[in-house]
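To the wet lab folks,

You asked to see what we're planning to order before we commit. Fair enough. Below is the target structure as tokens, and below that is the sequence we designed to fit it. If anything looks off to you, flag it before the synthesis order goes out.
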């Protein structure tokens, strides 16, 4: 395991963000309340439903293979359900496990990577990784919005330039939650350690939606992300369960 304390200069980290994970793509903007700002914009993907109960005993839409990857101690699961294997549109729902079952929060529209999803993510493939990953660390350019996760406020959380169709990326990293894909848990999201090697990519975050697909991250509207960050509780061992609907059902 690479030493989690390893760091690279901030300038290199900031310059690297657009190359390995978080980034932009064709503009598909979200309007207030989740309404599309123009034709082709992201629309909420219907959350998986259960005919058994309002609080289902198992996570809706999650098959046995995916379920087996969720730690038994996990009581919070952020489920990111992609519209299709090659689609950049998805829905995010926070589920919390109670004695009655998994209680669902609001369904929130989101963007994932430009080319959709992959079981074997590589740097630059423009696909988001499919799987179950822990959520342990947060940060951003702006002050802590009230999350219980460790929060690193830093000027290095900058997102200069524009996306593939010219949408500004400014503000995308105002708030982020690190997805523990190819990173060392318990470190700032700015940590550039890559346990699987640089070729497998990294820097996969939940961050503020900039109005288009990402390089590999999941983008949510700012208020939705802040509410999610406030809800996440380290004591409940939160994870993100992410992928296209067909893959999650395996």
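Sequence we intend to order:
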């Amino acid at each position: 395991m690479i030493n989690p304390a390893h760091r690279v200069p901030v300038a290199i980290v900031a310059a690297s963000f657009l190359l390995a994970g978080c980034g932009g793509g064709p503009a598909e903007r979200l309007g207030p309340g989740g309404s599309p700002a123009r034709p082709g914009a992201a629309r909420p993907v219907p959350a998986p439903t259960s005919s058994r109960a309002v609080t289902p005993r198992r996570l809706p839409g999650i098959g046995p293979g995916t379920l087996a990857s969720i730690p038994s101690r996990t009581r919070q699961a952020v489920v990111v359900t992609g519209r299709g294997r090659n689609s950049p549109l998805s829905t995010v729902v926070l589920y919390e496990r109670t004695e009655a079952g998994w209680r669902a929060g609001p369904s929130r529209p989101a963007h994932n990577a430009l080319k959709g999803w992959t079981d074997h993510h590589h740097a630059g493939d423009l696909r988001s990784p499919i799987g179950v990953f822990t959520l342990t660390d947060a940060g951003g350019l702006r002050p802590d919005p009230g999350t219980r996760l460790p929060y690193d406020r830093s000027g290095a959380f900058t997102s200069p330039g524009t996306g593939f169709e010219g949408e500004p990326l400014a503000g995308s990293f105002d708030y982020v939650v690190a997805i523990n894909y190819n990173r060392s848990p318990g470190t700032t999201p700015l940590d550039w350690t890559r346990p699987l090697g640089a070729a497998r990519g990294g820097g996969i975050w939940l961050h503020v939606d900039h109005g288009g697909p990402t390089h590999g991250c999941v983008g949510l509207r700012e208020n939705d992300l802040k509410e999610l960050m406030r809800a996440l509780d380290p004591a409940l061992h939160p994870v993100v369960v992410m992928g296209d609907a067909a893959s999650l059902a395996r």
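Structural context that might help your review: Residues 222-231 form the longest helix (10 residues). Residues 141 and 174 are 5 Å apart (CA to CA).

Thanks,
Computational group
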